[in-house]
Amino acid sequence: MARKTIDESVKKKISESHAKGNPMRKIAREFGISLSSVHRIVTGETAKTPKSKVSKSRDKEERKKKIIELEKKIAALEKKIQEIEESKRL
User: For the chain, what is the domain count?
Assistant: First the structure.
């Protein structure tokens, strides 16, 4: 389904309406657009594009690296705990 482009002047009116305190749902109904579009306009977010397979695999690799780093930190903390417990016993 093709997206309908929202004119910059309409975006400005939407932002102004939100700044005046109008709820996003009311603004969406008033301008005939989706709530998510109003949210994107108000927060300044851009439309999300689907991730490619390359970026997904890159994300998985980054997650794996983070997990390994966290596991190392956990192991170091567990070692410190054991050392503290042993020093208390003496």
Answer: 2
Q: How far apart are CA 37 and CA 46, in angstroms?
A: 9
Percent of the chain as helix, strand, coil, to the nearest 5: 75, 0, 25
In a domain, residue 74? The reply is yes
Do 36 and 45 meet the contact criterion of CB atoms below 8 Å apart? no
Q: For the segment 63-74, what is each residue's pLDDT rounded down to a tens digit?
A: 999 999 999 999
Pick the most confident of 44-48, 60-64, 75-79.
75-79
Asked if 37 and 48 touch (Cβ cutoff 8 Å), the reply is: no
